[in-house]
Amino acid sequence: MPIEPPKSKAAKRLVVLDGPRAGGAVWLIGAGPGDPELLTVKACRVLATADVVVHDGLVSPAVLDLAPAAARRISVAKRKAHHSYDQEDINRLLIALAREGLVVARLKGGDPFVFGRGGEEVAACRAAGVECQVIPGVTAALAASAAAGAPLTHRGSAQAVTFVTGHATGDAEPELDWRTLATANQTVVIYMGLSKAALIAARLIDAGRAPSTPALIVENVSLPHERRIATRLDGLGDATAGLDGPALLMIGEAMALARADAPPSLPFMGREGGAAIRVGKC
Fold first, then answer.
1. Which of 12, 18, 51, 78 is catalytic?
2. 167-175: long-range pairs with CB below 8 Å, 24+
3. Would residue 51 show up in a list of annotated catalytic residues for this protein?
4. 8 Å CB contact between 187 and 161
5. How many angstroms separate the CA atoms of 218 and 145, rounded?
6. Measuring CA to CA, which residue among 77, 80, 74, 73 is closest to residue 57?
């Protein structure tokens, strides 16, 4: 049977003073890439019950606005070379809040289990005896692929898709299996790889991927100011010049189908040109 979200307690205290209180739970919610209309119905419904919202820096204000006005919002934003909280701090925070009997909405950009360190938070909650449920979200690659009309898998040109992270500590090189990623007829999606784009392209070409392989860069996925740049693998580094927002690098033959000039995803319009249907109260 599906687990129902707990009723909001509207509790205000956030410091554990004694033993655990009943009713507290952590919900790891995939907040999607930014557009609130890409939230699942369940995510929206649980968020509406939250006493406290612990959110990443990339969670859009429009998604945060779906939480109750009285819910406390705590940013645990992580930026390159600067973390307001480290992961252990976040784990302890979630556990402490839940033990106060609070309904904790842990909002993560995209999907909690796709480069979101959701597994670490689930494990910490389990070890502490805190109830923790996960609600999947639309990861950025899916939203970028859909908006650009470039399928991640496509008969004849992309028999596989691989998600990897281009992030590495400092100036270190990402530890990736370049030879496997260089195999033709697959799509490689690189999260957090903007600063290493030229290096990534060089490594893939050295490993055998054709320099002419189509590539697509998508910045600010699903937001009104989303930007797409169509290029080739050998032009990936130059094409990222001037970009500083969160971006995906998407490499593979199927990216030839991308419409870089297509408008960002639009809100659903009702029949006969009715007003746009926007996410409001869940």
1. 78
2. 167/191, 167/192, 167/193, 168/196, 173/199, 173/203, 174/199, 174/200
3. no
4. yes
5. 9
6. 77
Name residues whose C-beta falls within 8 Å of residue 266's C-beta, 6 or more positions apart in sequence.
Answer: 276
Instruction: Please report, in tens digits, the pLDDT of each residue of the chain (282 residues total).
Output: 444 555 544 444 444 444 557 779 999 999 999 999 999 999 999 999 999 999 999 899 999 999 999 999 999 987 655 556 899 999 999 999 999 999 999 999 999 999 999 999 999 999 999 999 999 999 999 999 999 999 999 999 999 999 999 987 667 788 899 999 999 999 999 999 999 999 999 999 999 999 999 999 999 999 999 999 999 999 999 999 989 889 999 999 999 999 988 777 666 666 655 444 455 556
Q: Which of 9, 35, 42, 56 is catalytic?
A: 56
The structure's pTM equals 0.84
Indicate if 7 belongs to the active site: no
Tell the residue number behind the tokens 């960002």, with chain if given.
264
Strand partners, 43: none
In the chain, the largest separation of any two C-alpha atoms, in whole Å, equals 63
Distances (CA, A) of 167 to 37, 81, 123, 227, 265: 28, 11, 23, 21, 27
The pair of three-digit structure tokens given for residue 161, joined into one six-digit string: 């898709």
